[in-house]
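During the reporting period the student researcher (J.K.) took over the structure-prediction task from the postdoctoral fellow and processed the backlog of single-chain submissions. One of the processed entries is reproduced below for the supervisory committee.
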Amino acid sequence: LEKHDGVGEGKYTIGLGQRRMAFCDDRQDVVSMALTVLDRLMASHSLRYDQIGWLGVGSESHVDRCKSIKTALMQRFVNSKNFDVGGVDQINACYAATASLLSAVNWVESPFWDGRWAVVIATDIAVYEKGPARPTGGCGAVALLIGEKAPIALEGHLTAHHMQHAYDFYKPKPSSEYPLVDGHFSLQCYKTACVECLRTYRSKFRRHLGRSFCLEKDVQLAAFHAPFSRLCEKGFAQMVFDEVEQTPSCECFSTVRTAQPIMSMPVDNERERERVLLDACKVAWDRCGADGVYLSKELGNLYTGSVLSGLLSQLMALSQRYSDSDVKRTPIRLLGFAYGSGYASSLVSFLIDPETDFEAVCGTADVHARLQRRVAVEPTLFEEAMDRREQLWTHCCEGTPERIVLATETTLPLDPNTTYLQSIDQRYRRSYATTAS
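J.K. obtained the following structure tokens:
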């Protein structure tokens, strides 16, 4: 893609930190992807649809400005005759699924919980118009099962938020699937939100646990929202530097404390300043954050599913680490940073039971096998797929349904048991079908 776009070697693979990027053509939308991951979640856990009491969806890529994705998913509940299912969609750039997750946990922990499972689905397609932002695209969906006695527990009392008004990334034009992006400003908002969330988290940690928080000692793993994987490392470095500044008497992060005088000096070269900080934080990042960007590097930006894919990436790394039965298992706190432009951000922490059968947990997702089944294509086919998506969006917005012609099913291969967009009728009603098993 670097060669095709005529940019310098390493601009995407080193500068953005990406290895591959997932994409789809006009035969996939956020509803079809949500249906696919819902089917897989139910099958992998041998669940019945009458066992689900709450279903929420987070997305920023809706195909309808009124009808929710969740109502489309209710097609799967018809045979069980279970229509008593709470929850609905939540919308905010890259953040909505985190809001849905917090709502689901609140329901399960409330006195109104009826003992059934909650399901949260993040589904998004990140596409950009031709230009420097297009390589930061991606697509994917994540489904979470939420209930009591889970091996991964949310520390809800420590959740920290930072919300501000900003036009760093937004979608004001119904006629276009593409966002308007103020790239440099958005990166600054992201890093600012990292620091502000950490400060609030630090305060809540002391209030609820009765002792000071230490990022190096109290956090074993981290997962970040990943517009591109390199930004996660930069956000983490900002957190570490703030930790060093706020705790001058602490001896943690010694390499960063050595670099602190340099970082505190006013410098004109922001890139050099950031490079010094990243170098100083590399050991800490490799220890707790590097494994969390595995899926980001493979898929690109999942928008609302990004931080959740980071959580899954860390679980996959734990599965490999503990495959050796002699490895000592210790308590794990994972810090997750969710960010959505506009902007909304939260820092959440999870306690992970070290005795969890991580191989079984990750086996339900079957990530490695599905990644290996992907097909690499030439950049020209990627651009053709983007053009078809743009044409479909235009015809839907211009009120010309008679001009909608979807690509043939074989344009891009689909996995078995994958739901796809089959047709759009004259009233813009979408029908879906599923490939054979």
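The committee noted the following: The radius of gyration is 22 Å.
J.K. will present the remaining backlog at the next meeting.
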